[in-house]
Design goal:
CATH topology of the largest domain: Rossmann fold
Structural class: alpha/beta
Oligomer: single chain
Largest sheet: 12 strands, mixed
CATH class of the largest domain: Alpha Beta
Distance between the termini: 22 Å
Helix content: 25-40%
Number of strands: 25
CATH architecture of the largest domain: 3-Layer(aba) Sandwich
């Protein structure tokens, strides 16, 4: 690999642009990995989809490789580099001549154009080509938006026609029976792939009787859609088609669920998703294969790369690195109790990423504010803050150990971290029962991640005792209590009247009571209060609502004040994104 720009002096997109001059054609990446021409669906020279059905059928008898999940401590608002560390680990394993693959999540346009960036990694540990990765890729999220919003089109149209016509006219004109939808009990809203707080609550259908049904509605960000969750957990097209018809859109006036199947829109919704079911193939900055499939936001969604991508990659690589969103309290917990339950796959190792910056934040340093300079307090050594902040790290190590998985702590190093600060993290992490590895992949790529790669190999070679936190026979409120106490550290759980009523109804339903549990909670704290750092004590989780994702196969308890539609900040990234009109190259994506 040629020498690339110094990440201490250059933005990620400049490094990516320089590396892209030396990218391997994606056909070569696929060929080296063992993907046949018939299984490769090209989208230009450097991006492709993989026909997973053909590949899995061909390799059905081949043993799976080692399975590694990358999670993190509770992050600052700036994030702590899970994607960067995933790419660094892949590059480090590549330096060790290991046959390695990765699966990461496709970035949402919301954070890409807002504050957090595109989630391609950073420095010398990135997924490339950066611009296609960041701006729509092969259209999976667009397909999800069209599929999801088609259900809302069908709902609003049906409500309008049921208002305008008698039962006899409905049957004669459209061969439809009245669903008697309750306009005050609508489960779904619309989606868009940007952060727009002004769309959280809307009124639609204003005008005359031909302008739709007037009702309150809402928008969520695209990756929070149940259709995205279905993409993450579906095993194949038949499974997706069945799940698509179980999406609960609304309820009738007797409280009976109205599904996409009832609206006769589930087939058309699936039609939008056929191509999206095939995972995307890109590469790391050092030329390792990276699958990109499904979406982010484990605080408001399942937040996992797809089961299909993992199944494909495990057949192709000896080691496979997958990624879960945010901290181990939400991303890893959903990997553990939802994704692994649905897939039947058992991980060999879990990585908990930590930065000195985040540990200082949990130890008492001022909380960084996105879009503003890093507080001066972070520029000097403060071992005391790091030591106090390691309480949060140890909490997450213990969560991984409760799953029976071997934990590896990755100190995602920045060049301003001091030897004393790093030594304290190593001391406390090892005392908690984890392997601890210093990794300088951001600054040095794979060469900087050799200690990290070796620690993961060692962890994968040890036996583990993977076990789920709960069985599906466990009543919903007992599950929520288990997650709150065992994973978040809460003293217990309280419910709003609305949430309590829904919980009782779900527990009494033979089908709904067997669905998994996908928590919605802030990623900025172990608690439901984003201002509480470290390991909060003496608090109770407040569940204000419970949603039903019948197609994805889980119910969704919503804790605290978190919204399914994030807001755009005052200094968003789109202000710095532009195009060179001579070359057509996009500048400023990070």
């Amino acid at each position: 690999m040629p020498k690339l720009p110094d990440p201490r002096e250059n933005a990620d997109y400049i490094i990516a642009e320089a590396a892209e001059e030396y990218m391997k054609p994606i056909k070569d990446i696929a060929s080296e990995l063992g993907i046949t021409d018939e299984e490769l669906l090209l989208h230009g020279h450097y991006v492709a989809k993989v026909d997973f059905k053909k590949l899995l059928e061909r390799l059905k008898d081949k043993p799976d490789g080692k399975y590694i999940d990358v999670t993190a401590i509770t992050p600052t608002p700036l994030g702590e580099g899970k994607s960067t560390s995933s790419m660094g680990l892949v590059e480090g394993l590549g330096q060790r001549k290991v046959n390695v693959t990765a699966a990461i999540r496709q970035p949402s346009g919301g954070p890409t154009m807002n504050i957090k960036g595109s989630a391609a990694g950073g420095g010398l540990a990135q997924c490339i080509p950066l611009t296609p990765f960041s701006l729509g890729l092969t259209g999976d999220i667009n397909a999800i938006m069209n599929s999801h919003n088609l259900a809302m089109v069908a709902l609003n149209s049906r409500m309008q026609h049921e208002r305008n016509y008698t039962d006899e006219q409905l049957m004669r004109l459209s061969n439809m029976e009245r669903l008697d939808i309750d306009p005050t009990n609508i489960e779904m809203g619309w989606i868009i792939d940007f952060c727009c707080q002004g769309l959280r609550n809307i009124v639609m259908g204003l005008g005359g009787r031909t302008d739709g049904f007037t009702m309150q509605s809402k928008f969520g960000i695209a990756v929070s859609s149940e259709v995205m969750a279905i993409l993450a957990v579906a095993k194949d097209l038949a499974d997706m088609r069945e799940r698509m018809g179980k999406i609960v859109v609304a309820y009738n006036k007797k409280g009976v669920p109205i599904t996409t199947k009832d609206l006769q829109v589930d087939g058309a919704m699936t039609a939008w998703m056929v191509e999206a079911l095939n995972p995307n193939l890109l590469q790391s900055l050092e030329g390792q294969p990276v699958f990109v499939h499904a979406g982010p936001f484990a605080n408001i969604a399942i937040g996992q790369s797809s089961i299909i991508a993992d199944r494909v990659a495990l057949k192709l690589g000896d080691y496979h690195v997958t990624e879960s969103g945010f901290g181990a309290d939400i991303g890893f917990e959903k990997f553990w109790n939802l994704k692994c339950r649905f897939s039947g796959l058992k991980p060999n190792c879990a990585v908990v990423v930590a930065t000195i910056r985040a540990l200082k934040c949990h130890g008492g340093a001022p909380i960084p504010v996105p879009g503003k300079p890093m507080p001066e307090e972070y520029k000097g050594e403060n071992v005391g803050w790091v030591e106090k902040g390691c309480e949060n790290l140890v909490h997450h190590i213990n969560t991984v150990r409760k799953a029976g998985i071997n934990p590896v702590v990755c100190i995602n190093a920045f060049y301003t971290d001091t030897d004393a600060e790093i030594a304290k993290v190593r001391e406390l992490g090892e005392a908690a029962g984890a392997r601890v590895a210093l990794s300088r992949h951001w600054e040095h790529g794979g060469e900087g991640a050799l200690e990290f790669a070796d620690a993961v190999i060692d962890a994968c070679n040890e036996p583990n005792d993977f076990k789920l936190l709960y069985e599906l026979e466990t009543p919903l409120r007992e599950r929520i209590n288990l997650i709150a106490k065992e994973v978040y550290g809460a003293d217990g759980v309280d419910y709003s009247d609305v949430a309590l009523g829904k919980a009782k109804k779900i527990e009494a339903d033979p089908e709904l009571s067997k669905l998994g549990t996908c928590m919605v909670k802030t990623h900025l704290s172990l608690s439901d209060n984003p201002a509480l750092k470290g390991v909060p004590k003496g608090w109770r989780l407040f569940v204000r609502d419970i949603l039903t994702y019948g197609g994805a196969g889980f119910v969704v308890p919503v804790a605290g004040n978190i919204s399914l539609m994030p807001g755009t900040g005052s200094n968003p990234a789109y202000r710095r994104v532009d195009v060179d009109v001579e070359s057509g190259k996009v500048k400023g994506v990070f």
